[in-house]
Amino acid sequence: MKETVDPRYAIAPQIFRALRQAIVTMELLPGQALSEKEIAAAFGVSRQPVREAFIKLGEARLVRILPQRGTFVVRISLSDVANARFVREAVEVAVARAACSIASNDAQARLADLVTAQAAAASAGDHRGFLALDEEFHRTLAEAVDCPTAWPIVEDVKAQMDRVRYLSLPEASPMSRLIEQHGAILAAIARRDPDAAAAAMRTHLSEILIALPRLARANPDLFDDSDLPAHATLGMARQ
Length: 239
Prior knowledge:
Layout: H1 11-24, E1 33-34, H2 36-43, H3 47-59, E2 63-66, E3 70-73, H4 78-102, H5 105-123, H6 127-144, H7 150-157, H8 159-168, H9 175-190, H10 194-218, H11 230-238
Antiparallel strand pairs: 1-3, 2-3
């Protein structure tokens, strides 16, 4: 977890981002208590910005604040993961379709370079590097359609998905499969085929629904429930 802040910028958002990253990457585990006093001391700040960061983490459903008891990292909610994927699919399928008519050759070349870099990270067993490149692929795709609000919307909802993604590599979701899926998206965009691009993106984002039940069974202490919304069940049925 990052334990430094830049005094030139607002402190609370920096602490929020550092804690969010630590929760997403499982450095801070589900059920773990967070001490306002200890985190303030670690960052060398007062307790007020830490309190503000806790509130934002609570709004993101990553921590639960219990009066008189403390603040705790929440377990991964299967429903929250499935709902986040549902929203993400709606946005990114639209992005993939738009890219077929808007994405420039330069943008497509950048995307191809990211897929190549992912293959190199997979070969090196660099799981964190692979996931960082995966995120960059999706961000670059959103930028390629000149829709500046698309990626912030995705980023806002995907924290629970990211926790599962860190758990799912490399066993539950083979990196080679994810690379192939990115390649299929990119190939459809290069052909200017919006239906194929949409289908490839939908398949890619449904991958988490395949891994989710297995991960929940293997890590019952990390997950909160076993109830999935209807749209999640339909997503698994498609596979």
